Amino acid sequence: MLFPLLGRGFVLSYDMVFAPEQSLSPDGVGAGSTPARSVPADAVVALLTWVLPGDVVQKCLLVTALVLGPWGAGRLVPSGVVGTRLVAATFYGWTPYVAERLFMGHWPYLLAYACLPWVAAAGLAVRRGEPKALTRLVLWVALGALTPTGGVLVGAVALAGAGWRRVVRVAPAVVLVNLPWVAPSVVRAGAVLSAPEAVWVFAAKGENWGGAVVAVLGLGGFWNADVVPASRELSLVPVLTVAVAGLAVVSFPRLGREWGWGLVGLGGVGLVAALFAHLPLGRGVLEWAVASVPGAALLRDAQKWVAWWALPLAVGVALTVEVVGRRLSRGRGAVLAVAVAVPVVAMPDLAWAGWGRLDVVQYPGDWGRVREVLSGDPRPGDVLSLPLGAFRRFEWNGYRTQLDPAPRMLPRTTVVDDTVYVSGVAVAGEDTRMPAVRRALERGDLGAAGIGWVLVEHGTPGALPDLSGLDEVFRGQWLTLYRVPGVVVVVAPENLGVAVAANVVGFGFLAGCLLWQWLPAGRLVFHRREE
User: Fold this and answer.
1) FRET pair for 461, CA 20 to 30 Å: which of 66, 253, 469, 530?
2) Per DSSP, which regions of 373-478 are E strands?
3) What are the CA-CA distances from residue 312 to residues 14, 88, 251, 320 (Å)?
4) Which letter does DSSP use for residue 450 in this model?
5) Which residues pair with 16 in a beta bridge?
6) CA atoms lying within 13 Å on the CB side of residue 167
7) Using CA atoms, how far apart are residues 256 and 243, in angstroms rounded to an integer?
């Protein structure tokens, strides 16, 4: 999957944007004007890029995300047979979920998906009462909880694996690990509402004649058709999907005995949640929730919850294949080989970076020079990125759709219009600051909105407003930087104290768990010297 991408350079695709050195901004810790969707992922990446080049950090994260999942799924096979483990690993790692999220740039989702088998194993260890199992569970949950979605995915698996008898111990630990994004979201909850039309725009979609239900059953159904592998449109895919799901269900009783029914049941919950907008009254309920209930915007892009179904599906298929191979003793090796090959043959266009869909590129030198200008100027003011819009298409990146890199490239808070257009439908953004910035741009009074700089990105679609009243500071082939004249109001981060405290508590708890895990006996024992 990744071999063509391992050279130096950046993979920039839709939401996946890394920078050579990412600045630690208020948004990265949950103190910005946008929902804490990338908390603490942006802060973690920023810290890592202080030690390693950004493209190296990106590759390490991608390799980790695509290796840990299959490895963990194979280890979860109860029988321990190597061939069976290979089947489970392949069915977990070579899936439409992985392909679509990789092409969409959802690397934190992939990392959370990769952690699910390890979280499940640690949760089962907690249920059995093994020493240090709870701290091991916390560490795996922390690795997967770099975004709210990842936190919910791994948190639910942790609770399902550990069982209801351990909820009192596991639930507080899961909350503490997720505190960096939970606390800022709760404090600014009144602002975290979403447009109701986003529910259907981001609902699971069909990929072929099987429709949305069969697509989700096979771990597909992503809403953005542009990132769906072409092989998913083949007429045989729905038949194969139903057959694979049937093989998995045959082994669910065994999984229920081995794991308890929590993890298997959670897989069913994932299917229902992913398809909820397609159920009777489901769409209406979700539209009301995202528009009325603070934080319910997390329910958008509901297909992501199908990740819970992937684990019982992969391990269930592997166990059924093992039984079939045992009964056909002479053909056992052939049965295992065919089973391992099925996911790859059914979706070959995930190989070789999606048959060239992804590639590595270098940022033009203009970005580094603009960063130097902004770093060297002591005057206050944030940056407004133009043209207005969340996504860009640059010639230097092969005209691939990518998120605006300015917020991660620049050393100052950068305001971006986060309105998203899907199939011509505008989904209103959730940045609480953007309406005031729009009005200030129309009035020509950006300084009153805290904007001290305007960055114009060239070579990407979008109209530009009149900027004749601004002072040009830098002009290059790809970027032009303007200074806003006059007084610039300083806009303080929102709820910075709460955000910093939440990160300190969350990462402090994680550090304590690491120390506890490394202690020889898992606990401190003090001996009183006898006189």
Assistant:
1) 469
2) 382-386, 391-393, 401-403, 414-415, 420-422, 425-427, 451-457, 471-475
3) 30, 10, 9, 12
4) T
5) 13
6) 6
7) 21
Q: Are strands 382-386 and 451-457 parallel, antiparallel or unpaired?
A: parallel
Beta strands in 59-199 (DSSP E): none
pLDDT tens track for 424-474: 777 878 888 999 999 999 999 999 999 999 999 999 999 999 999 999 999
| Per-residue model confidence as pLDDT tens digits over 247-297 | 999 999 999 999 999 999 999 999 999 999 999 999 999 999 988 887 788
Tell me how far apart the alpha carbons of residues 319 and 315 are, in angstroms, rounded to a whole number. Answer: 6
Scored b (16 or more CB within 10 A) or e, 140-176 reads: bbbbbbbbbbbbbbbbbbbbbbbbeebeeebeebbeb
Contact 24/43 with Cβ under 8 angstroms? yes
Token pair for residue 243? 């057959």
Three-state SS at 106: coil
Cα 261 to the center of its chain, rounded Å = 27
Q: 478 φ, ψ to 5°?
A: -110, -20
Task: Give the CA count within 13 Å in the CB-facing half-sphere of 46.
Answer: 19
Backbone φ and ψ of 163, nearest 5°: 90, 160
d(CA 477, CA 525): 65
Contact between 493 and 32 under an 8 Å Cβ cutoff? The reply is yes
- Taking the C-alpha atoms of residue 332 and residue 321, their distance in angstroms, rounded to an integer, is 9
CA–CA gap between residue 507 and residue 522 (Å, rounded): 19
Closest CA relative to residue 494, chosen from 448, 450, 445, 438: 450
The whole-number pLDDT of residue 420 equals 84
Integer CA distances (angstroms), 409 to 17, 362, 384, 399, in order? 9, 13, 13, 19
Classified as helix, coil or strand, 38 is coil
User: Which amino acid makes up residue 184?
Assistant: P
